[in-house]
Design a protein that fits this description.
The complex is a heterodimer. Chain A contains seven helices and no strands. Chain A is mainly α. In chain A, helix 1 (about 20-35) runs parallel beside helix 3 (about 65-85), helix 2 crosses helix 3 and helix 6 packs across helix 7. Chain B has helices at about 5-15, 55-65, 75-85, 105-115, 125-130, 135-145, 170-180; strands spanning about 25-30, 35-40, 45-50, 70, 120-125, 160. In chain B, the strands form two sheets. Chain B has a four-stranded mixed sheet. Chain B has a two-stranded parallel ribbon with strand order 5-6. In chain B, about 40% of the residues are buried. The chains are: A mainly alpha, B alpha/beta. The interface between A and B is medium-sized, with 29 and 36 residues.
Amino acid sequence: MTMNGSRLRPGDGTLPAFQSLLDQHAADVLRLLVRLVGAVEADDCFQETWLSALRAYPRLRSATNLRGWVLTIARNKANDARRSAGRAPLPIPADLAAAAPSAAGGGSDGVWEQVAALPAKQRAAVRLRFAEDRAYPEIAGRMQTSEASARRNVHEGIKKLRRSRT
Amino acid sequence: MTAVAEAVRRFALRAEQEDLVDVGYDTVDSPIGGLLVAATDGGVVTIHFEGESDAALSEIARRVSPRMLRLPRRVERARRELGEYFEGRRTEFSVPLDRRLIGPFGAKVLGRTEEIPYGHVSAYNLVAREIGHPNAARAVGNALGANPIPVIIPCHRVLRTGGSLGGYGGGLHRKRFLLELERVFPAA
């Protein structure tokens, strides 16, 4: 192989072509953005979302939840747009269901329906942790709690899910 | 065009302007089926037979870069030259090539192969001798089989010693078609 000294890095072996992400999730991203910021601003946010995603893509360590990753970027862009328009940021738990793998695809065997039935804080924490693949400090930040209580909420949520599934 | 398609189209343009696309690709129609042509900003880096498939895209993502977008403009020149070739109006390609997927031995073999003129053929053992590895006919065959840019780098012009068709990564029917197109009629 003549990769040495080339300008491009080889892929890490697990990430699909970026175009596949775009083909699979562009419609959902646009729909989410229209819902969050309205049709007029959605287009700018859409562009910013996918440009950010493309910039970061080669450094992504895991290909396990690309959908959640892109939808999170979209949410953040929507929040930026709202902030610069002087509007309140979006409430955290309300739209996180969008980041859960769709019921139809991915063989989630109904677990996200059960997540939806958890108490609000546990629900939000579990979704941030597993649908969006967030680290605990970030979950704490997003939920405006301590890291310890973010962990506790995830832990309690998982415990409850386990119990309801056995 | 739907709102999504339009938004995606504009995103692709911006991504290209901002130099974020490592590999642009598109499918080029040909008499031997859809060709998936992928290009970096250095030139055509690979051509896959059987058109656009997840397997082909993943392989390119893994071997070159996952920052891949469908970008018809990036492969426009290759599309034009391939079209002319398949119409019998072009005997040499001048589209730039990115040779990063070709190793040192492959570079020797394919470099020699590129010197075989349109409508002419050589043989594995002949190429082996010409690159100074007279006993490496089999390795030459493997290097030709690993040619990442078939058709443009004309590995189809190398036959088995004795004149039979030999092998071809894209299937022997394609090799035969290309040789018939170039008016070479190998003894089957």
